[in-house]
């Protein structure tokens, strides 16, 4: 298969046309019905409609016809015959939906809305490695300190989502640092050899939202053609690499 670029699409939930749940499958509809609050249900539906329509940009499959399965940890994979190689990941939060699609390798994406944090010291001890926590807590400006925390948090979420193992990967057992070129490097305490040579990461602050994406590189080759698409009524690509 020829090398294809990896794409990252984002949109605001209110821009997703949601004509009910007809194109969702039974599992998605059951999950949507389980939400207690209407706004959470509406966000979930919008995100999964957006995901299906996004995947249909990459294959001649109608949004309603995509089939999925999950691994033992609940990560979804494409089960549509002939398209099992297509990798994707979905994240959504108040005000933003992100869907990453890749032909190049395993991918994970996480988006979080910035909000004031209480008990940041405890959050750092729970969610970050000692080196990451020290980096966050050494920042004196409260806003920049919170921004740094969200950057690390979304990076870690993107990585564990890409791995498809959830929180069975202890958050304190891997660390992100930035090199002299401000590129993110992954360090692990597991037997995984040279993880920084296998993975590529990027982060963005988009208004009130923090977004990170992690991509497993094929043959240790950097993915230099990630396309960033912001849906504001039309899909206009903006190159970020």
Question: Can you describe what's shown?
Answer:
Belongs to the P-Pant transferase superfamily. Gsp/Sfp/HetI/AcpT family. Residues 107-201 form the 4'-phosphopantetheinyl transferase domain. Pfam families: AASDHPPT_N, ACPS. This protein has one domain: 4'-phosphopantetheinyl transferase domain (Ribosomal Protein L22, Chain A). α1 runs antiparallel to α2 (38-55). With 241 residues, the protein is of the alpha+beta class. The chain has helices spanning 26-33, 38-55, 120-127, 130-137, 142-163, 195-198, and strands at residues 7-11, 68-70, 76-78, 87-93, 96-102, 107-113, 174-178, 184-188, 199-206, 209-216, 227-231, 235-239. The protein is 28% helix and 28% strand. A 5-stranded mixed sheet has the order 4-5-1-11-12, covered by helices on one side. The protein has a 3-stranded antiparallel sheet with strand order 6-10-9. Strands 2-3 form a two-stranded antiparallel ribbon.
Topology readout:
Layout: E1 7-11, H1 26-33, H2 38-55, E2 68-70, E3 76-78, E4 87-93, E5 96-102, E6 107-113, H3 120-127, H4 130-137, H5 142-163, E7 174-178, E8 184-188, H6 195-198, E9 199-206, E10 209-216, E11 227-231, E12 235-239
Parallel strand pairs: 1-11
Antiparallel strand pairs: 1-5, 2-3, 4-5, 6-10, 7-8, 9-10, 11-12
Helix pairs in contact: 1-2, 3-4, 4-5
How much of the sequence is in beta strands? 25-35%
**Do you know the CATH architecture?**
Alpha-Beta Complex
SSE ordering: EHHEEEEEHHHEEHEEEE
Helical proportion? 25-40%
Number of domains: 1
Mind summarizing the main beta sheet? 5 strands, mixed
User: Distance between termini?
Assistant: 23 Å
GO cellular component, one term: cytosol
InterPro entries: 4-PPantetheinyl_Trfase_dom, 4-PPantetheinyl_Trfase_dom_sf, AASDHPPT_N, P-Pant_transferase_sf
GO molecular function: holo-[acyl-carrier-protein] synthase activity; magnesium ion binding
Domain 4'-phosphopantetheinyl transferase: 107-201
């Amino acid at each position: 298969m020829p090398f294809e670029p990896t794409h990252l699409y984002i949109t605001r939930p209110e821009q997703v046309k949601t004509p009910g749940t007809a194109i969702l499958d039974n599992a998605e509809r059951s999950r949507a019905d389980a939400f207690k609050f209407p706004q959470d249900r509406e966000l979930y539906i919008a995100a999964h409609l957006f995901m299906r329509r996004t995947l249909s940009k990459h294959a001649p499959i109608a949004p309603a016809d995509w089939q999925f399965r999950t691994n033992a940890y609940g990560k979804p994979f494409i089960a549509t015959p002939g398209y099992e190689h297509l990798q994707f990941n979905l994240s959504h939060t108040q005000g933003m939906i992100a869907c990453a699609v890749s032909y190049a390798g395993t991918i994970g994406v996480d988006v979080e809305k910035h909000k004031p944090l209480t008990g940041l010291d405890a959050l750092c001890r729970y969610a970050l490695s000692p080196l990451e926590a020290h980096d966050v807590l050494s920042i004196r400006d409260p806003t920049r300190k919170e921004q740094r925390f969200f950057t690390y948090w979304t990076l870690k979420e993107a990585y564990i989502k890409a791995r498809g193992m959830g929180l069975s990967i202890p958050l304190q057992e891997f660390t992100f640092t930035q090199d002299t070129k401000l590129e993110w490097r992954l360090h692990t305490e597991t037997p995984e050899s040279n993880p920084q040579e296998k993975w590529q990461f990027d982060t963005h602050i988009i208004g009130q939202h923090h977004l990170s994406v992690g991509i497993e590189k094929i043959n240790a080759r950097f993915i230099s053609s990630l396309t960033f698409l912001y849906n504001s009524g039309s899909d206009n690509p903006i190159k970020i690499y």
